[in-house]
């Protein structure tokens, strides 16, 4: 059934919020439908240019960002074999709610790996020893990718591949709650500066993850952080189409609308943001380990 992006008028209540329309048809002189077409062209090109190996794995949480990345990877003209990798503790949301994705009525190959506390703690020690200056959030991100890469390499019998990350849309489309607070307190005047600041931190994290994964022979690519995609998203899309005034707990509105346009289910498109370290259960294990070792060197992590 065709997706009627602009004809969607019935109120939907899902996961604690109501959505009528994600974005208006027009914003000032901007034709949103045409803008979405341009966004698709740039996003597809960015993903296609990242597929430089015969096989590629996608760090997949089932959220809107990794789902858009997966759909785009399958829409490219590339003949790269795509597989998903999902990690989490036994009772984590990512494991319990994993549904995977299908393409042309075929399920996409997926590695779903349940993590033990010991695996997470061992990864924490490795990452904190290598990067003792990391903030807690970046430490947990690095632990998550270290575990994704380890499970991926283990499944491949030591052979290495390309890992695709969906990092970037939270910075470029105002996904973090701090963007909501900023809009409520100051309007849109400082939003672009905040996006640029967030991108700086994202690039710093990207370098750390690349170094970490490169040590075990895995190449990381983040197509939503490449120059072409960043320039377009930052300069061509008005912030008013990314986040609304009035306590917007959804955010990333035009990005979600784009996800709907390329065929993602409403359940995915409207899913609230939850960082991988939380939905995978890694955060709780890291906090517990840090409390036990808070007096040891290397665990004085900034919040």
Description:
With 303 residues, the chain is of the alpha/beta class. The chain has one domain: Rossmann fold (3-Layer(aba) Sandwich), CATH 3.40.50.620. Helix content is 48%, strand content 13%. The protein has 13 helices and eleven strands. The chain has helices at residues 32-50, 64-75, 93-96, 117-130, 136-155, 169-172, 177-186, 191-214, 227-235, 253-261, 266-269, 276-279, 282-292; strands at 12-14, 17-19, 26-27, 30-31, 55-59, 81-89, 102-103, 106-107, 110-115, 162-164, 219-221. A five-stranded parallel beta sheet has the order 9-6-5-10-11, with helices on both faces. A two-stranded antiparallel ribbon has the order 1-2. Strands 3-4 form a two-stranded antiparallel sheet. Helix 2 (64-75) links the parallel strand 5 and strand 6. The radius of gyration is 19 Å and the shape is globular.
Name a few traits of the molecule.
303 residues, 5-stranded parallel sheet, two-stranded antiparallel sheet, 13 helices
Structure in a nutshell:
With 303 residues, the chain is α/β, with parallel strands linked by helices.
């Amino acid at each position: 059934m065709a997706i009627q992006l602009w004809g969607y008028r019935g109120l939907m209540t899902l996961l604690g919020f109501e959505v009528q329309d994600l974005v208006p048809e027009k914003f000032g002189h901007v034709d949103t439908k045409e803008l979405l077409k341009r966004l698709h062209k740039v996003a597809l090109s960015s993903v296609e240019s990242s597929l430089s190996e015969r096989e590629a794995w996608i760090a997949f949480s089932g959220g809107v960002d990794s789902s858009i990345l997966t759909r785009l990877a399958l829409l490219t003209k590339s003949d790269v074999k795509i597989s998903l990798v999902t990690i989490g503790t036994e009772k984590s949301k990512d494991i319990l709610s994993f549904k995977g994705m299908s393409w042309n009525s075929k399920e996409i190959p997926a590695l779903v790996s349940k993590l033990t506390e010991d695996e997470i703690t061992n990864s924490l020690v490795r990452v904190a020893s290598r990067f003792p200056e990391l903030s807690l959030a970046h430490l947990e991100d690095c632990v998550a990718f270290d575990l994704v890469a380890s499970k991926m390499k283990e499944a491949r019998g030591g052979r290495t591949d390309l890992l695709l990350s969906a990092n970037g849309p939270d910075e470029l489309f105002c996904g973090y709650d701090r963007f909501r607070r900023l809009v409520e307190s100051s309007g849109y005047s400082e939003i672009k500066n905040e996006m640029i600041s967030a991108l700086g931190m994202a690039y710093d994290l990207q370098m750390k993850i690349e170094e970490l994964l490169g040590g075990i022979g895995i190449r990381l690519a983040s197509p939503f952080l490449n120059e072409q995609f960043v320039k377009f998203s930052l300069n061509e899309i008005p912030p008013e189409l990314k986040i609304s005034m009035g306590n917007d707990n959804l955010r990333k509105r035009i990005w979600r609308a784009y996800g709907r346009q390329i065929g993602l289910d409403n359940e995915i498109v409207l899913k609230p943001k939850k960082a991988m370290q939380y939905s995978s259960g890694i955060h709780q294990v890291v906090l517990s380990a840090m409390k036990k070792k808070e007096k040891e060197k290397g665990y004085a992590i900034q919040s």
